[in-house]
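quick one, two chains, predict together pls
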Amino acid sequence: MGLYCFGIDVGGTTVKCGLFQTDGTLLDKWEIPTRTENCGENILPDVAKTIEEKIQERKLNKADIDGVGIGIPGPINENGDAACAVNLYWGFKPVAKELSELTGLSAKAGNDANVAALGEAWKGAAEGSKNMVMVTLGTGVGGGIIVDGKIVSGHHGAGGEVGHANINHEETESCNCGNKGCLEQVASATGIVRMAKKELEASDDTSVLREKTEISAKDVLDAFKDGDAAAVRIMEKVGDQLGGALAIFSCVIDPETIVVGGGVSKAGQPLIDLIQKYYKKYAFSLCKDTPIVLASLGNDAGIYGAARMVL
Amino acid sequence: MGLYCFGIDVGGTTVKCGLFQTDGTLLDKWEIPTRTENCGENILPDVAKTIEEKIQERKLNKADIDGVGIGIPGPINENGDAACAVNLYWGFKPVAKELSELTGLSAKAGNDANVAALGEAWKGAAEGSKNMVMVTLGTGVGGGIIVDGKIVSGHHGAGGEVGHANINHEETESCNCGNKGCLEQVASATGIVRMAKKELEASDDTSVLREKTEISAKDVLDAFKDGDAAAVRIMEKVGDQLGGALAIFSCVIDPETIVVGGGVSKAGQPLIDLIQKYYKKYAFSLCKDTPIVLASLGNDAGIYGAARMVL
């Protein structure tokens, strides 16, 4: 094993970059813009350039660098190829191969949500867990599955696409994916707002949420924590579906730890307690006490996980 | 790699034994009784004895034998310890360690359903698939998850306990596990009979099933294949729940192949077609075409998978 590695997390507007020691110490962290023009043709060359500049700046010996890992918003297969990263305007791109050629370093590529899960399993909330499930509650619901310390990318790159677990066969509205009844329609920020609107329409109860012209997920979560009756009813439904889905995932891979991240998780321990209550109700006996914890690396999870991939 | 290995599958009444070449060729297959008296203390010594006898009979050189794998009905952790195999009357038992000491061979132990899945992934219906899900529809519903060619036993030995995926939060009857709403309550032989009784009670429609004094799952499946309207309604409900559950599992590990085994799977291709129809309805876009196939090794899946564990 060498001394250093790079972890790169490509987002739609910025690329987060990290230089790590191979023991997981983050030595340096910086960002560059994501240039999506011309079908995103500059993105990987820009990454290679900033890595080369960092190597020069720090006077690193390339032989001491184990490689560069990169997280990409979109499905990535086991060879490190992106099928179609729409937010980067890419069609098929052999990301790991191109980045290796551009940098002269060993390179690995993974889906950004999967890579963030690996980061949390390496140095975050699930540190030391060989098997873990991470669910990221943001605008959508993403996730990552770690088995035996490695990302489960799956045969079509859809490993950890837990937001599209179909948990409600009775749903009549469509998810962005085209199906009806996905976890994302309930447990994402957008889903929580949707659930709130339905709940408020279904009753005339007073609620602080009725004072808002436009309800946000944060409004619902704040009202839930303040004990607003309607917000509590909304979040109990969300918790029932989300805790129930996590219980199903546990029957599949029986993780050591379940990590909850993403913007919605800023609601903190009250949200975790709610999820845990329903998880425990629905989980198989052996798995009822599996810890559910808040992600701890925040926006750095991606660079940590990307770095871990090459070690 | 050596030339031979043994695969052992311990059931409640018989122990199935196989001698394999390490390329997967089954050279010899035999059974011994499972002696469960005295808390099953003879089971592993009996296995060691029959292996030793086979080695003598075939004049094998122990140095040419890679080891012995064993499947056990109950949760097995990653060290090869059984927490509590109730059908064998065992409490905690370090199975792999004891079997290794008794035989002088390298030994690995796994849960029987998980081991059968590994057998199907090695030389059966999912041959060549590195990632696969197997669901076994018998008296109960068991299963096994293979990721990267290896069994996912999970942190508590509950990996692949897919029969206890809680898929119906509205269920009022209890599963054997104590929860309400498990897949096993719908898709096992027992579950199919339960679903049939509910359906027949809910209507007065004529059905061949009403002519039976005691309905079996085979009766329901035969009537379904013959187009009996009530049986079709029953099995559509089973297919909806089972196909939907498999679609959720695919969002977790995105397998290359899904294998359906167990006694219920004797219903054959019409059952697979039914499951596939609902799987496709609920699966995430990238996974909609994942093949669902019938198990092909039958009762030999366990010895194949057990042998594979030691290679």
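The first strand of chain B starts at residue 4 and ends at 10.
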